């Protein structure tokens, strides 16, 4: 039997969320690395994180769609962020299951780092670039780290 469950938003909150005074002036992001870039996906989209799950490949789908998985009876498409960024796929990775407008989508990423509260006044708009379709903003996390805000809704409109 495979061990595939790492985090679920319905489970006990993560330890660094001890401060329950989170207000509208901050937003939670799940930080993940993919292709050497640090992304943050809005916590409201994150359903769970899984590892060691068999992906079934499909014919006649865009190259960035790695296939589908069967997760407790639900068929979920898996999108490889590295391929969307024009990079080579990685051997080691995990899947973040996102719920975007009641559509479940799995996002294949290199690693998941942590959940983080980001003050909304530190978020800046993303540079207007064709390559930045999946990025809606950015912010500095200190220590030379820049988080790119992952635009989950754009994931569903890729062609």
Write the layout of secondary structure elements.
Elements: E1 7-8, E2 26-34, E3 37-42, E4 46-50, E5 65-71, E6 74-80, H1 81-84, E7 94-100, E8 103-109, E9 111-119, E10 124-125, E11 135-142, E12 145-150, H2 152-155
Parallel strand pairs: 3-12, 6-8
Antiparallel strand pairs: 1-4, 2-3, 2-9, 4-7, 5-6, 7-8, 10-11, 11-12
Write down the overall geometry.
globular
Give the strand content.
over 45%
Q: Mean pLDDT, as a whole number?
A: 81
Let me know the number of strands. Answer: 12
Measured between the Cα atoms of the first and last residue, the distance is 36 Å
Order of helices and strands: EEEEEEHEEEEEEH
What is the CA-atom radius of gyration, in angstroms?
16 Å
Fraction in helix: under 10%
Question: SS-based structural class?
Answer: mainly beta
Poorly predicted sequence stretches spanning 5 or more consecutive residues: 1-22
Main sheet overview: 6 strands, mixed
Number of helices: 2
Brief summary of the model shown:
This protein is mainly β.
Structure description:
It comes from Candidatus Intestinimonas merdavium. This is Chemotaxis protein CheW. Residues 26-159 form the CheW-like domain. The protein has 159 residues and is mainly beta. Helices cover 5% and strands 47% of the residues. It contains 2 helices and 12 strands. The strands form 2 sheets. Strands 1-4-7-8-6-5 form a 6-stranded mixed beta sheet. It has a 6-stranded mixed beta sheet with strand order 9-2-3-12-11-10, with no helix packed on it. A hairpin with a 2-residue loop joins strand 11 and strand 12 (145-150). The longest helix is centred in the middle third of the chain and has 4 residues, at 81-84. Mean pLDDT is 81; it is low at 1-22.
């Amino acid at each position: 039997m495979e061990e595939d469950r790492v985090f679920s938003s319905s489970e006990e909150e993560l330890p660094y969320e001890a401060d329950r005074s989170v207000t509208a002036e901050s937003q939670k992001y799940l930080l993940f690395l993919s292709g050497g870039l640090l992304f943050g996906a809005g916590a409201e989209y994150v359903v769970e994180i899984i590892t060691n799950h068999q992906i079934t490949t499909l014919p006649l789908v865009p190259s960035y769609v790695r296939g589908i998985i069967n997760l407790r009876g639900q068929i979920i498409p898996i999108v490889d962020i590295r391929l969307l960024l024009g990079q080579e796929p990685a051997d080691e990775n995990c899947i973040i299951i996102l719920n975007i407008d009641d559509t479940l989508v799995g996002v294949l990423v290199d690693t998941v780092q942590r959940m983080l509260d980001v003050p909304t006044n530190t978020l800046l708009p993303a540079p207007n670039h064709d390559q930045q379709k999946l990025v809606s903003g950015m912010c500095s996390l200190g220590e030379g780290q820049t988080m790119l805000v992952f635009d989950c809704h754009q994931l569903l409109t890729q062609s």
